[in-house]
Structure formats: structure tokens, C-alpha cells
Amino acid sequence: MVWNCIVPGKEGRIFSLTLNFDENYLTPLPVCKFPAGFFHVNVYNTGAVCLSILAGPSITVRQILIGIQDLLDNPNPASPAESSSYELLVKNLSEYKKCARQQAKRYPMHVHPTLLHIQRKAFCSIVPILVTFFGNEFSQIP
């Protein structure tokens, strides 16, 4: 089963993400992927997310999405997925941030930047409601 989701990022940008569930979900946990080539130290070139909670015991979809949202804001150089973005992060942070900002500009704005703090908090609160309401049809947060 595949769920198409969005993750709010900085500056009001929204990032598309797929969650690929095995028939036996909760074990294994879903494979989480951004589009191929997504620039982030903890995302493989295929788009697969490298996040420790995805290898741990069963967690909720809400925890997964919040963990990925946090990872976007706080790259983890201790667990790099791609060597080129890792090298840039540790050797030239300003250039890494510039590349991340350039990538973000390719994604749509969801809200006015002044409402971003409210939107990001609302996202964390609304995920369980959307999963309950839409079930397998959960695709996007309006």
C-alpha cells in the first residue's frame, strides 16, 4: 500500500513524500521516499529517507512524519545517506544551506510565511485525525 503525503518545511514550502507499507505493517515499517534526487544529507539519491526511527520498533505514522519533518530542519551528519551532501554539510555549511534553499524553491508554498509556525503545529496535530478519517485514502493535507 502506498500513501502520498506532504511534509511542511521551512518558509512555507511543502515537500511530497511517499510511504510504502508492507502488507504486514507494523513490521516492517514503511519505506519513506522523497522524489529521486532530493537534496539532503539524510536522503539517498533514490529519495529513500535515512532516519533511525525507521529501523526501530513499530511507531505510528504521525511519529514517522514528525520525525521526517524534524530531519528536514535538523540534518544528522552522524547518519549520512549521500557522501556529496555530507561533504558539503561538514565542509561548507553555507553552501549546503544554499543548495537546500534552492531545492526548496522548486516546491510549492502552502501558506504565507508568517503563518508557518501555526501551520507546522497544526500539521502535527491533524495527522492522526486525517489517518483516522481517510484511512487508506490518506493522500494530502489540504
Automatic annotation (TrEMBL):
SUPFAM superfamilies: UBC-like. Residues 1-109 form the UBC core domain. InterPro entries: Ub_conjugating_enzyme, UBC, UBQ-conjugating_enzyme/RWD. Pfam families: UQ_con. Signal peptide: none annotated. This is UBC core domain-containing protein.
